[in-house]
C-alpha cells in the first residue's frame, strides 16, 4: 500500500500584572458563577513600521516562551474565557445533546471502507461499534483471513488527543511505518511494526511533518523533520536498525518559506522530492531502488512558476502554469528533464488540476464551469479522450484510492449536496460505473425530500460568484427562512458541493444551507484564486457579503436571518465581514480564525509567516502590502460598533493559527463592541488546528456550534 498522509518584547510589568481585570482566584473560579465576561487587561505595547505606530495592548497574550505555553496570566485568562463559554452554553446543553444524538444516529457506527487491492494484499479500514478511531486491516489477495495491522483506538487510549499522520506499508509487505501526533502540535513520531508478529521495532523518529516513503528494498525510509519554526525544510533517509542521529540528509532547503515534501510516482520507480511555497515549486526525482543516487532536478525554480511531475516508461509528464494560468501538461525525457513539450495546452475553459500516470493510460482531472471532470487519455493517441459522465448538475467527484500502476478499472468517489458519499469502480473496457458503496445513514435519509441548486450572484465589481444551496422541500423562499452561509476563500482551495450528515440538523430545522464559491478559492479556475490573494484579497470578503445580500434580494432569506461560519483563513473571512457588515448576520462562528494578520505577517519567526508572504504579501519589506493588510486585518479593524452574536474557537497547541490570535481578537472585541450580544471564546487546551480528535468528539463540537447558532437565531427546541 502506498504511503498515506492525513495547510517583540513584553511590557515590563508582565510578571506582576493580573491577566484580566478583577479576576477571582483559581479556587473561586471553580465554584463561583461569573457575573460578567472576563476582560483582558490592556498593557501598553507599540511598534513602528513604515512610518506608522501600531498599538497592540493585548500583545501580552502571546506567551513569550512559545511554543512552550506556561505563562500563568495567559493560561488563567484562557481558562476564564472557557468558564464563561461553559456557563453561557449551559442553557443549551439539552439542545446540544439532542443535536449530537441525531448527528450520531446518522453515522454507521461500524463503518468500513471499500477494500482495495495493492499488490499481494487487500487493505481496508473499519470502526468498531462506538469506537472513536479506525482499525486498519488487510488480507491476502489470494485468499485468507482478515488481519488487524493497526488499531488507532489502542494508540489513542488514555490520550486527550490523537491523530494518525502517515501510514505506509513497505514494498515487500512485511513492515508498517506509521506516525501520530498526540497533542495537536502537528509534530508526528514515526514507529515501525513487523506485520507478521505485531512487534514494534526500536526505531522511533520524533518530530516529523511529512509523508513516509520506502525504498524499493524495504530497508530504508524517507521522511522530513519539522524545524524549530514548524517547517519541513529537509528530506532524510533512515536505514532500519541504525541510530536515528546517523540518518542521511538527502536534501536541505535553504530558502525561507519553502517547504519540502516527499512522495512516489504512480509507477513507484521514482521518489519525488518537491519544494516550494504558495506560488513557486521545484522538483527532484531519485530512483526508488537507489535513494542516495544523484538527484534529477527537473527544472530550477522560477518565481511564480508551479509544476508537478509524473513518470511513465522514461517519459516525464509535467503539469505546469508556466504559459497559462489554468495549467498545461507537458512531456520531457529523463535525459533532458528541463526541455518541455506541450501535450495538452492550457485552456480558458478547462482548469487542469491533476494528472496520474497508469501503465496503459493516464488520467487528467480538472474543472469546467466549476464542475469536476475526470478524463481517461491514451499515451499513443492524443485525440482519444474519454470523459466520465456523472449524473447530477452539481457534484464533487474525482479519483479515489488507486494504489496500483497496472489497472483495468479506476476507483472513484462521488457526492453532491443531496447525494451521500458514493464509491464507484469505473471499468475501462465497458466504460461503466459500478456502485460499490453508498454512505449508509442508519437513522434514515431520503434525497427526494431535499432540493439542491447552483446559482450565481453578481458581486459589486461585476464578477459572477457561484453559490451551492441545499434545503428541505417545502422551505418557503419568501425571505422568511434562516440561511447559513459558509465559505473558505484562500490558497486556491475550492469548497466542494459535497454531502454532510451533520448539516441536515440545520436543514431539517428550516435552514437553507449555502456554500459561497468566492474568490480566493480556485472554483472557477486558477485566475479565480489569484483574484482573491495579495493586493486583491478584499475581493474575497466583498464576494461573501455580496452573496449574502444577493440571496436576501432573491428571497432566500432576510438581512439579519443569516448565520455564517468559517475556519482558519475562513475565520479571517468571518472577522472581516463582521467588521464591514455586522448587521447582516444573526450569528457568526469563527473557528481557529487567522485574524491577527498584520502582526503575524510581520513576525518572520512564526511558522506561518515566510511561506505565507506569497499569499498575503510581505509587510516587512513592502509598505503597500503593510497598508493593504492593515486595512482589512480583522484584529486591527475592530471598531466601536454593534457586532453580531459570535462564537470563536482556538487550540492551545495550534501551530497554524496560534492560540493568541482568537484570544487577542476576543479581548479587543469585548472592549470595543457597543452591543449586548453574546461573545464567547472556547480554547481547546489539549488540541490544535483541527479541534478535538475522535469522530464523536468532533461531532460534539459541531453540535455545540449548531446549538449556538439556533440559540442566537431564536430557533431553540423550546421555540421550535
Can you describe what's shown?
With 720 residues, the protein is of the alpha+beta class. The chain folds into 4 domains: 223 residues, Alpha/Beta hydrolase fold, catalytic domain (Rossmann fold); 247 residues, Methylamine Dehydrogenase, Chain H (7 Propeller); 70 residues, no CATH class; 113 residues, Alpha/Beta hydrolase fold, catalytic domain (Rossmann fold), CATH 3.40.50. An 8-stranded mixed sheet has the order 32-33-35-34-36-37-38-39, sandwiched between helices. A 5-stranded antiparallel sheet has the order 1-8-9-10-11, with no helix packed on it. Strand 25 and strand 26 form a beta hairpin. Helix 3 packs across helix 13 and helix 7 packs across helix 8.
Brief overview, please?
This protein has 720 residues and is of the alpha+beta class. The protein is 18% helix and 31% strand.
Compile the SSE list and pairings.
Elements: E1 4-5, H1 26-31, E2 46-49, E3 52-55, H2 72-89, H3 93-105, E4 116-118, E5 121-126, E6 135-140, E7 147-151, H4 152-156, E8 163-169, E9 175-181, E10 188-194, E11 200-208, E12 213-214, E13 220-223, E14 234-239, E15 248-252, E16 259-264, E17 270-276, E18 281-287, E19 296-297, E20 307-312, E21 315-320, E22 328-333, E23 341-344, E24 350-357, E25 362-368, E26 371-377, E27 385-387, E28 396-399, E29 409-415, E30 422-427, E31 432-438, E32 450-458, E33 464-472, E34 483-486, H5 504-507, E35 512-516, H6 526-530, H7 538-553, E36 562-567, H8 569-580, E37 585-591, H9 597-602, H10 613-616, H11 623-632, E38 646-651, H12 660-672, E39 679-684, H13 695-712
Parallel strand pairs: 34-35, 34-36, 36-37, 37-38, 38-39
Antiparallel strand pairs: 1-8, 2-3, 4-5, 5-6, 6-7, 8-9, 9-10, 10-11, 12-13, 13-14, 14-15, 16-17, 17-18, 18-19, 20-21, 21-22, 22-23, 24-25, 25-26, 26-27, 28-29, 29-30, 30-31, 32-33, 33-35
Amino acid at each position: 500500500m502506498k504511503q498515506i498522509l492525513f495547510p517583540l518584547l513584553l511590557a515590563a510589568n508582565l510578571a506582576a500584572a493580573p491577566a484580566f481585570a478583577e479576576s477571582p482566584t483559581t479556587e473561586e473560579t471553580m465554584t463561583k458563577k461569573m457575573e460578567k465576561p472576563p476582560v483582558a487587561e490592556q498593557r501598553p505595547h507599540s511598534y513602528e513600521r513604515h512610518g506608522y505606530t501600531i498599538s497592540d495592548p493585548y500583545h501580552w497574550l502571546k506567551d513569550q516562551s512559545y511554543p512552550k505555553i506556561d505563562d500563568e496570566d495567559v493560561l488563567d485568562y484562557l481558562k476564564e474565557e472557557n468558564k464563561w463559554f461553559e456557563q453561557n452554553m449551559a442553557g443549551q446543553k439539552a439542545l446540544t445533546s439532542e443535536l449530537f444524538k441525531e448527528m450520531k444516529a446518522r453515522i454507521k457506527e461500524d463503518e468500513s471502507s471499500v477494500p482495495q487491492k495493492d499488490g499481494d494484499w487487500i487493505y481496508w479500514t473499519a470502526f468498531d461499534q462506538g469506537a472513536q478511531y479506525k482499525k486498519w486491516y488487510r488480507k491476502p489477495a489470494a485468499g485468507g483471513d482478515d488481519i488487524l495491522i493497526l488499531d488507532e483506538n489502542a494508540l489513542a487510549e488514555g490520550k486527550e488527543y490523537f491523530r494518525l499522520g502517515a501510514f505506509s506499508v513497505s514494498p515487500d509487505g512485511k513492515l508498517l511505518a506509521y506516525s501520530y501526533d498526540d497533542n495537536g502540535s502537528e509534530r508526528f513520531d514515526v514507529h515501525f511494526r513487523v506485520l507478521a508478529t505485531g512487534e514494534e521495532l526500536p526505531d522511533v523518529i520524533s518530530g516529523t511533518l511529512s509523508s513516509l516513503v520506502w525504498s524499493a528494498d524495504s530497508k530504508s525510509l524517507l521522511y522530513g523533520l519539522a524545524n524549530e519554526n514548524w517547517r519541513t525544510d529537509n528530506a532524510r533517509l533512515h536505514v532500519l536498525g541504525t541510530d536515528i542521529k546517523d540518518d542521511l540528509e538527502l536534501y536541505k532547503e535553504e530558502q525561507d518559506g519553502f517547504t519540502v515534501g516527499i512522495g512516489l510516482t504512480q509507477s513507484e520507480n521514482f521518489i519525488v522530492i518537491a519544494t516550494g511555497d504558495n506560488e513557486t515549486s521545484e522538483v527532484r526525482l531519485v530512483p526508488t531502488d537507489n535513494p542516495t543516487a544523484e538527484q534529477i532536478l527537473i527544472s530550477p525554480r522560477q518565481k511564480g512558476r508551479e509544476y508537478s511531475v509524473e513518470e511513465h516508461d522514461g517519459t516525464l509528464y509535467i503539469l505546469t502554469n508556466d504559459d497559462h494560468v489554468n495549467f498545461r501538461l507537458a512531456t520531457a525525457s529523463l535525459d533532458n528533464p528541463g526541455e518541455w513539450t506541450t501535450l495538452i495546452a492550457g485552456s480558458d475553459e478547462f482548469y487542469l488540476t491533476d494528472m496520474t500516470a497508469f501503465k496503459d493510460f493516464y488520467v487528467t482531472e480538472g474543472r469546467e464551469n466549476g464542475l469536476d471532470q475526470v478524463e481517461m487519455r491514451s499515451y499513443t493517441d492524443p485525440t482519444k479522450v474519454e470523459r466520465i459522465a456523472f449524473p447530477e448538475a452539481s457534484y464533487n467527484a474525482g479519483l479515489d484510492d488507486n494504489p496500483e500502476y497496472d489497472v483495468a478499472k479506476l476507483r472513484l468517489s462521488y457526492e453532491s449536496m443531496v447525494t451521500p458519499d458514493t464509491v464507484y469502480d469505473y471499468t475501462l473496457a465497458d466504460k461503466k460505473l459500478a456502485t460499490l458503496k453508498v454512505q449508509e445513514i442508519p437513522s434514515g435519509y431520503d434525497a427526494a425530500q431535499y432540493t439542491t441548486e447552483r446559482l450565481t450572484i453578481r458581486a459589486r465589481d461585476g464578477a459572477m460568484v457561484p453559490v451551492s444551496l441545499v434545503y428541505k422541500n417545502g422551505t418557503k423562499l419568501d425571505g422568511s427562512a434562516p440561511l447559513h452561509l459558509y465559505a473558505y476563500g484562500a490558497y486556491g482551495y475550492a469548497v466542494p458541493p459535497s454531502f454532510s450528515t451533520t448539516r441536515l440538523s440545520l436543514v431539517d430545522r428550516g435552514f437553507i444551507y449555502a456554500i459561497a464559491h468566492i474568490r480566493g478559492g480556485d472554483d472557477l479556475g486558477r485566475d479565480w484564486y489569484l483574484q482573491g490573494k495579495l493586493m486583491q484579497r478584499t475581493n474575497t470578503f466583498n464576494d461573501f457579503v455580496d452573496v449574502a445580500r444577493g440571496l436576501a434580494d432573491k428571497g432566500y432569506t432576510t438581512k439579519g436571518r443569516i448565520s455564517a461560519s468559517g475556519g482558519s483563513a475562513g475565520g479571517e473571512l468571518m472577522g472581516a465581514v463582521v467588521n464591514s457588515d455586522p448587521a447582516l448576520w444573526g450569528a457568526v462562528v469563527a473557528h481557529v480564525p487567522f485574524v491577527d494578520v498584520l502582526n503575524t505577517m510581520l513576525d518572520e519567526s512564526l511558522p506561518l509567516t515566510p511561506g505565507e508572504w506569497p499569499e498575503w504579501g510581505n509587510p516587512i519589506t513592502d509598505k503597500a502590502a503593510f497598508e493593504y493588510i492593515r486595512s482589512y486585518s480583522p484584529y486591527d479593524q475592530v471598531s466601536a460598533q454593534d457586532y453580531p452574536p459570535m462564537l470563536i474557537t482556538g487550540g492551545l497547541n495550534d501551530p497554524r493559527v496560534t492560540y493568541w490570535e482568537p484570544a487577542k481578537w476576543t479581548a479587543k472585541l469585548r472592549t470595543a463592541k457597543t452591543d449586548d450580544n453574546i461573545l464567547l471564546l472556547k480554547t481547546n487546551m489539549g488540541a490544535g488546528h483541527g479541534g478535538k480528535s475522535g469522530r464523536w468528539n468532533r461531532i460534539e463540537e459541531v453540535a455545540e456550534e449548531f446549538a449556538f447558532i439556533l440559540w442566537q437565531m431564536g430557533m431553540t427546541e423550546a421555540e421550535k
